[in-house]
Amino acid sequence: MKISYNWLKDYIDLDITPREVADKLTYAGLEVEEIEHIGSKLEGVIVGKVLTCVDHPNADRLKLCKVDLGDKVRQIVCGAPNVAAGQTVPVATVGTELPVELDNGKKLVLRKAKIRGQVSEGMICAEDELGLSENHEGIMVLDDNLKTGTPFSEVQDLYEDYIFEIALTPNRPDATSHYGVARDLSAVLDKPLKQIPEKGSKNNGDIGKRISIEIKSPEKCHRYVGKIIENITVKESPQWLKNKLMAIGLRPINNIVDATNFVLHEMGQPLHAFDYNLLSDKKIIVQDYDKDVRFTTLDDVEHTVPAGSLFICDGQKPVALAGVMGGQNSEINNETTTVLLESAYFEPVGIRKTSKRLGLQTDASYRFERGIDPNITLKAANRCANLIARLGDGIIVKGTIDVHPVQTKPIVLDLRVSFVNKLLGTKFDRALIKNILNRLEIDVEAKNDDVLKCTVPTFRPDIEREVDLVEEVARIYDYNKIPAPEFVRYITPSPVPYHETFLNKVKESVKSLGFKEIYSNSLMPEQASRKFADEKEIISTLNPISKDQTDLRPSLAYGFLRSVAYNFNRSALSVRFFEVGHVFRKGGKGTIIKGIDEETHLLMGLSGQKHFEHWKEENASYTVFDLKSAVNGFFELLGLDDKIRSKKINDNRLAYYIGKIKLGNLYRAEESLVKSYDIDESVFIAEFSLTAIEKLLEKQPPLVYEEIPKYPSFEYDIALVVDKTVSAGNIMDDIRKNAGSLLLRIDIFDVYEGKSIGENKKSIAFRLSFRDKSKTLTISNVEPIINKILKILNKNYSANLRS
What we know:
Blueprint: E1 2-4, H1 5-8, H2 18-27, E2 31-39, E3 45-55, E4 63-68, E5 73-78, E6 88-92, E7 97-101, E8 107-109, E9 113-115, E10 118-120, E11 123-124, E12 160-167, H3 178-189, H4 207-210, E13 212-215, E14 221-230, H5 239-247, H6 255-267, E15 271-275, E16 283-288, E17 293-296, E18 302-305, E19 310-313, E20 318-321, E21 325-326, E22 339-346, H7 348-358, H8 363-370, H9 377-392, E23 395-396, E24 401-403, E25 411-416, H10 417-424, H11 430-439, E26 443-446, E27 451-456, H12 466-477, H13 498-512, E28 516-517, E29 523-524, H14 526-529, E30 539-540, E31 551-552, H15 557-568, E32 574-586, E33 596-611, E34 620-621, H16 624-637, E35 645-650, E36 653-658, E37 661-668, H17 671-676, E38 683-689, H18 690-699, E39 714-723, H19 728-738, E40 743-752, E41 761-770, H20 779-797, E42 800-801
Parallel strand pairs: 13-16, 28-32
Antiparallel strand pairs: 1-12, 2-12, 3-4, 3-6, 4-5, 6-11, 7-8, 9-10, 14-22, 14-23, 14-24, 15-22, 16-19, 17-18, 19-20, 20-21, 25-27, 26-27, 29-31, 30-31, 32-33, 33-34, 33-38, 35-36, 36-37, 37-38, 39-41, 39-42, 40-41
Helix pairs in contact: 5-6, 6-9, 7-8, 10-12, 19-20
């Protein structure tokens, strides 16, 4: 938000520099990000008179001019098409800095130079070279009666200012205006704040015969003030007004519109001026519609405004999109003679919804969305009406219409002096605290020696609790002036919750396996969410931020696929990502909200090249077994590898269980889904419920560390021939069940299919590791166990040892 240093001086006497003002505002919580110096007093620019003007001997489009500067005559080379002898002109003398920015970011400084062999001592200036306008059609010609040698600043209304770019937080709607910022600055400097003059008529008079105002949606419009100014002339605004608006980046339009913009940036109250003669039936009706409405705004853009949006209507049609922008069908034009001035309070949430849905943010919506002061509405209307009447030579129709169905009263809070000092580590007395709060226009009364009764003005909706008042005292007093404590208490931090410890362990485990963490949005487009869950499971938001963020994600796969596509599109050859995040689905008991399941999931995903081409090896792409190996490693790091069981769902999907509890799936993403993201590589995804895994780990007994075994393990390899349809996971489950307590681990080290073992057969080679803590195992100890296992596998799967 832009705030003008000169404009602030209209409300407070400033005797400090712009840099010091910026520091004071920043310390008070209104962070000044940048200070821009605009305009100039143009020292070195003087009034000159062109005595002679002849063609340049070495250039067709240049002129040689002899110019009288009062005390001397100088030769100046000029290329303007309108330069002529006898003209009175502004001349920048040698050494003058002009407000013209060069390519290197520096300002243009005039030097004595030779141009095509002719000496030039200065510049006859155009308006844009002096920073007065963007006009560069020719040099600026002045009044012939001006005396040569006179400083240009004495004959021209020059404007120089410093503009503060303030990073305003959403909770400070009171500071969206120059007066609001001046209020804070006056409190910090302890200087008087000049009041904005208010002159207005009561809620009666002739205006009631000229217009009627009705609010049909009082929950969305708490107050609507109307005033009429007639016999006005629409014309260009005076220079002082144009200077103020241009300083903060606004383009002057005409005296009526400029007046509303001036009051908006002065007081923070948006206003709108209607051409009274374009209003049908001389009515104003504030209402919403239960259907979409086509409406053309002032910027000549036709919008489809969603149902529920608030409109300002006349007796027949909408004439403004409430709180956002006026309509083309009632705008001020050069033929306007009578104005209806609107000053209203619109409920913030409704304005924000409309603004976001249409992608249309204006100075008005910016303020309404944050919550303006509902009790400044009439004052701003009177201020603007008087300004319009003065600038447009008009007359204010007697009376004011003020429809006010919803009243807003100041809140009252108790503030304990002891609480202020305890929180800030200070020794403030009651008088100092009262003085600081009074400077912010907070009314303070003493209830007893310790408690102050504070009435918070309605322009400060952010002050809701006692601690908010403490913050006001601290920021105005200046945090830098609060002394450091004489001693510091060191508090032993609370133990880290198990949930946080668990998530940290998960992330560190997956990182150790070579995966990089990604973060993605928990909201996704409607058309995409249906690809990852049934429609009946999808949760849609009531007020989506955009069309791309309508549904809560039922899976982490959407964000992963977008990340894969993003990286491949930027020449990445390989991705190995993981994400920990929340997913949401309808159904079940609900973890927080009934009927909505929210779980924490882990996604691990691979795609692209596993090995890159090298003189020692060829390219190799990731396969599903690379991800399966990483998943096994992950469960091993969590200490769950001996409990995890996998089950083949189909050729592309593997489910993981602990007992009857399903943890998640490992799968190859469908080709049609991958192609929809413009990914040409195979994508492998494993997604697990960390919520379920955490519950299982919590129930496990604490970890017990044992000595390194004295006795070695005994390894035994068996290769079994089974039907192709037999799952290796089922065989491993049966081996574990029947191998007894000596079995340490089991691994698959070879899978083979070929004619030598028969059609529809496959060979799976297992390595079984055994260990006894009390002795060294021999073949005689292990062989009976192997024979038992082989009998059971032959019975269950017709498995035979491979010869």
